[in-house]
Amino acid sequence: MRVFVEKRGGRYENMFLLAGHSISPTVEDAELVCFTGGADVSPYLYGENSHEATSSCEFRDEQSLNLYQKAKKLDIPMVGICRGAQLLNVLSGGSMYQHVSKHAIGGTHEVMDMVGSKTVQVSSTHHQMMVPNLGKGEVLADASLEGEKEGPPLNYKGLYIGYEAEGFDAESVMYLQNQCLCFQPHPEFFYPGHECFDMFFEHLNHFMKRLEK
Questions:
Q1: Domain boundaries, the chain
Q2: SS3 sequence of the chain
Q3: pLDDT tens-digit readout, 104-124
Q4: What own/partner pairs with CB < 8 Å and gap ≥ 24 does 108-111 have?
Q5: pLDDT in tens, 126-160
Q6: What pLDDT is recorded for position 154?
Q7: Which of 6, 51, 97, 185 is the most exposed place for a label (fewest CB within 10 A)?
């Protein structure tokens, strides 16, 4: 599969190459567009004021939005990693917790992978967390770290009611209608054979096959 990677180069492109994919130099020739990590997504994109812990970059947001709109126009599926996942989540009708505890850690933590029906160790460098739009999305992996969350409230737009009550944090969310896969951990930190790397490509394959149906 030919992949166009936002902010070209580095670990993200190497990750796709290691998994047997090729890198497209242009969006127009791509079969998948990947949105990468970075600053927090600006809260105005999901109708919230900025939390004191939020650090966003409107110029980066503008660049990402332009890429998103181009991919939508060309009908190209999209995948997001960390910040990229958060961006695609809010552009698919979800929201964000702007500050969470127990996630921005140096090592890994356990998630439940619903695609593979197993527990997996994944990276966790983010201080924010996706609030998925469960009316349109499907959670593919979640964690149960029982961390504290700040903004928005649990019943924000009714997006997370029922799911959040069980104490879970969404780590991977698929929006088939919007052709977006949102993957919160960092698979590009690892190599083939590591649980986080392998789970990302299992979810990507699952996502692409579901789009074909």
A1: 2-212
A2: CEEEECCCCHHHHHHHHHCCCEECCCCCCCCEEEECCCCECCHHHHCCCCCCCCCECHHHHHHHHHHHHHHHHCCCCEEEECHHHHHHHHHCCCEEECEECCCCCCCEEEEEECCCCEEEEEECCCCCEEECCCCCCEEEEEECCCCCEECCCCCHHHCCCCCHHHCCEEEEEEECCCCEEEECCCHHHCCCCCHHHHHHHHHHHHHHHHHHC
A3: 566 787 889 999 999 999 987
A4: 108/196, 109/143, 109/145, 110/143, 111/141, 111/142, 111/143, 111/171, 111/172, 111/185
A5: 677 888 888 899 999 988 765 556 565 444 444 54
A6: 47
A7: 51
Task: Assign domain 2-212 to its CATH architecture.
Answer: 3-Layer(aba) Sandwich (3.40)
What's this model's pTM, rounded to 2 decimal places? 0.89
